[in-house]
Amino acid sequence: MTSPHFQTFTVVAKVAGTILNSSYKVYGYTLYDDYKGVWPLGRIGSYADGVFTEEHVPNIPVHFVIFTLVNGKFYGGIGSATPATDSSYTVPLTNVNPATFKKQVDAL
């Protein structure tokens, strides 16, 4: 095995009018566009206050899927990128029906 030269980057979850501090459980996943693969954000990297710091294999297009509950309401967002070293990607989370959000994720 050889090192795939991981890219280090950040993914920032944003909810308008809310600061995603440690009291919120925010879940994030990377879906690889051209592969049947999913990777949980923060597994090897880190997470704090709405910011995931991650490492991934370079030059692979992905979608970021992030969700949380705010005041008992479901918020979700999807972003896309081909992660590059030292880049930051913001994923806005909006109040959405969980079943609708699941359909959006299933369509990726």
General description of the model:
The chain has 108 residues and is mainly β. The chain has one domain: Carboxypeptidase-like, regulatory domain (Immunoglobulin-like, Sandwich). It has one helix spanning 98-106; strands spanning 7-15, 27-32, 38-40, 46-48, 51-56, 62-70, 73-81, 88-95. It has an 8-stranded mixed sheet, with helices on one face. The protein is globular and about 40 Å long.
CATH class: Mainly Beta
How many strands in all?
A: 8
- Counting copies of identical and different chains, the oligomeric state is single chain
Gyration radius from CA atoms, angstroms: 14 Å
Provide mean pLDDT, rounded: 91
CATH architecture designation: Sandwich
Q: Separation of termini? A: 30 Å
* Spans where pLDDT lies below 50 across 5 or more residues: none
Helix content: under 10%
How would you spell out the order of helices and strands? EEEEEEEEH
Strand content: over 45%
